[in-house]
């Protein structure tokens, strides 16, 4: 039976797909550090060898010897989007005889643009513990819920340091958390649903082929695998995905993108807003959509007694009866309450 971890519903803030970067590593003799944050699952070919030995889809350091007792290998990751960390996954997939005996993870809040070497030279007291040194297993996903102590619980994390004690190989590092973008740049008309602005998926009826977090990711999808695809429905229902917006906002227009979904796009879609009080507001009525197409819908809803659209905190996209979405963009402006939410996270 597969265990369920609530923190996995939060986006992976370290992912290369969100512009995360492995900016420094103490060593990468066998396998390069950049593999740590690749969005795809680690692969393995038992017959693939290179000049440095067995090729692994992960980060692997050389074996430490007697002259390096007391030293550990480490890698520093700059998160693509800073945030409050809810959980971490350290995956040692395929590393069976060369995984680290122990692992640890530390966090840093640093808004300066420092090089990897400058970050590595920071004093230890600038870093705070997210995962204390713990025993690791080979070929295993370590799901680690984060409960920071003291004021660390309120800290916004911009970088993480992954330690291998003392050396070995790790295939992937996932850092799941609530995005906390800089409020100075969340002004005017913005994509209220975008993960880089603080949006996140909170509900989804079906994610058989791919995770719906991808529909609010940075940039455009490069293929069908870069969006959300559900299984084929064989009943009278329909699938949907709900996105919590970065903050309360007034929606002006919506983009519903089915790019790359040629034979498995929805037949129809409907988009509904949800207010802070739980009331539903129709943003786009049920309407036909086309395969492999960027659709734009103006939102005409206006709250009674106001001059603008009804403030909402979430949006639900219904697809009929099923089908894939490449991207969902929700363009609008934050209300005063929404702006305060952004500032409080920062």
TrEMBL record:
Task: Name all Allantoicase domain ranges.
Answer: 20-179, 198-334
At the top of the EC hierarchy, this enzyme's class is hydrolase
Gene3D superfamilies, A to Z:
Galactose-binding domain-like (2.60.120.260)
What are the entry keywords? Hydrolase, Purine metabolism
Q: In which pathway does it act?
A: Nitrogen metabolism; (S)-allantoin degradation; (S)-ureidoglycolate from allantoate (aminidohydrolase route): step 1/1
Quote the protein name from its UniProt record.
Probable allantoicase
Q: Name one GO biological process term.
A: purine nucleobase metabolic process
Question: Which Pfam family is one of those matched by this entry?
Answer: Allantoicase
Organism ancestry: Bacteria, Bacillati, Actinomycetota, Actinomycetes, Mycobacteriales
Record-listed E.C. numbers? 3.5.3.4
Q: Which domain of life is it from?
A: Bacteria
The protein's annotated catalytic reaction(s) are: allantoate + H2O = (S)-ureidoglycolate + urea
Family from the record: Belongs to the allantoicase family.
Q: Name one GO molecular function term.
A: allantoicase activity
